[in-house]
Amino acid sequence: DKCLAIQLHHLGDLHPMVAHTVDLMGVALLRLGAAEEALETFEKAVYIQEHNHGQGGHPDWALTVMHAGQAYELQAENVDTERAEKEWKRELDAYTEKAYELYEKALEVFQAQVEANEPDVDVANVVHAMGNVHNIRGEHMEALRKYKYALEQKLKIYGDDDVSVAWTKNNIGNAFQGMYKLDDAIKWYSEALATVTTTFGADHPEVAHVHWNLALCYQTKGEVDAQKRKLGWHSRWPFTLFSQGAKRRLIHEGDDFTKMDKHLHHAFDVFVKRLGEDHVSTQRATQAIMAMRELIRD
Known about the structure:
It is built from 13 helices and no strands. By secondary structure, the protein is mostly helical.
């Protein structure tokens, strides 16, 4: 805010540097989970950029348009599914369609700036973001294709130990988790966790998000394994007499549950400490811990 105030005073409200600062403010709002406020901020930056450069064609414009797409993507991730399915799916489709439309516009500009087959960070990032939209829609194979393309580009530019590479590995894990290929997901999450922990330290929100993903993965893995055990013996008489209680116990026993518990509590502790109790990530982790405690108690 102080930087923006100085720029407005000396440069006026339509200077390209003002647009850049406004765009950065929107990115900060995105990190705080404030999607609507971020979107309004990006729209202001786009207005300034179009005043100076016209609509489309300029890399700064494309970058802000991509960020606006990420705001719509965040809104899609946070759609309330505790209502009629038709209603929330309509809202999800609207957000993801808008996000993808903006990503395509940004990609067109970025690709025009590079030579054929030349790796480019902006191209990699927007293709990665397009993969996110496919993942939200449940189109996990297409998401995986987008992520692997982005990963290939990033590895050529950064090498294997960069945080941006780690985030694409993390999202490859998301795609595999969506396809219930859980061992593959854990492999990619673990690689991502090693990099971000080395870069940021264990007590960082970005690291906590990977722990959260691992917790969800181990939870699903435990449930799937429990169902396999149930099919093996649990449906046979006389075990059917105890099916409900046994099912609940099977899910939260074993090594997968222990690992889930470790990753979940790590994520929760960091979210509370670094993001506060009102942040959406903290609230989700709180609900997960409460559900886990109920499961153990039952």
